[in-house]
Amino acid sequence: MNDVHDYGNSWKRHYLERHLQEHIEKLGPENFVQSEIESLVQLCSPYVKRLSIQQLQAPQPPEFIDGDHCEWPTEVNSIDHISLQPFIKGLVNLEELHVMFGVRGCGMDFAWILFKFSLVDCINIGLGLNSANCLKTFRIHRSTLDDARVSILLQHIMRNTTINRLDFSHCEIGDQGALAIGKLLTVHPALEELILCNNKIGAAGANGLACALSHIASPLKLLDLRLNHIGNQGVTDLCSALANSEHPQELILAGCGFTEETGIKLGQMLQHNTTLQALDISNNNLGEVGGEALSHGIKDNTTLLRLDYRMTGITQEDASSINMSLKSNTNRYRRKQEC
């Protein structure tokens, strides 16, 4: 992202966003001085709209008595990083926040503890979110964000009514975390995109999200659950909710471990759903039976414009039938847009 066009054609914004990112990524907890941070944030605040943090330095490990080397004790399971609260709170124009916990280029000093973060880290981020009145996109990815940590963050996200995109992809959120996220969907007034790709959500978590879709308050447009093994039961619950729900408009279920019996449920759902425009079910074993159910179901659907059925094992005949139905829906949609 070195193109100034990515920064609103502002060289000042380009420089200050990159400078602040580099400063945060290199700042160790032992060098954190509140007054210096506040001065830096005040200087950068008018120009910074996006903050993308690719690493956070860990504190220095304790030194052994013999003084030969430093190493983290095996019983330590999380570490506190620098507080991001003053950055989030002080950047009054911040619209996007991307955070990844870990250390790049650690070399021979590698330890799993460097890629873990504490509940205190979550609390500090959450307190910052309470004051982020312009924030639209919040992303924590490729990090050890689990049920306990995401629950803390969600308590603060509920109070922030400007966030419309949440991305917790490639983390460790399980069923309890998904249930908490489902509760968020029933109360948050602005959330439009929810990305939970490659977590540890199972059938119980999918059921919680399905219940939330039946009582949703958020104007959700995108729900991404790819690479979560929610299985047949999880997708069946989602189909039951989607039969009558107006949200989302795009659903991604690629690589979710469901089979042909769920393909039948998907076909039945498409017969009743009137708002879904894009559906990704690639890399699931639907087979001939599931493909036939989909091709029949989509014939009665007038809104679906895109269906990704790659690597599902459906027959060429069913694929051709699906494509014809999609083309018909697309032509109908274009005519509506022209009117």
From TrEMBL:
<dbReference type="GO" id="GO:0005634">
    <property type="term" value="C:nucleus"/>
</dbReference>
<dbReference type="GO" id="GO:0031267">
    <property type="term" value="F:small GTPase binding"/>
</dbReference>
<dbReference type="InterPro" id="IPR032675">
    <property type="entry name" value="LRR_dom_sf"/>
</dbReference>
<dbReference type="GO" id="GO:0005096">
    <property type="term" value="F:GTPase activator activity"/>
</dbReference>
<dbReference type="Pfam" id="PF13516">
    <property type="entry name" value="LRR_6"/>
</dbReference>
<dbReference type="GO" id="GO:0006913">
    <property type="term" value="P:nucleocytoplasmic transport"/>
</dbReference>
<protein>
    <recommendedName>
        <fullName>T-complex-associated testis-expressed protein 1</fullName>
    </recommendedName>
</protein>
<dbReference type="GO" id="GO:0005829">
    <property type="term" value="C:cytosol"/>
</dbReference>
<dbReference type="GO" id="GO:0048471">
    <property type="term" value="C:perinuclear region of cytoplasm"/>
</dbReference>
<dbReference type="InterPro" id="IPR001611">
    <property type="entry name" value="Leu-rich_rpt"/>
</dbReference>
<dbReference type="InterPro" id="IPR027038">
    <property type="entry name" value="RanGap"/>
</dbReference>
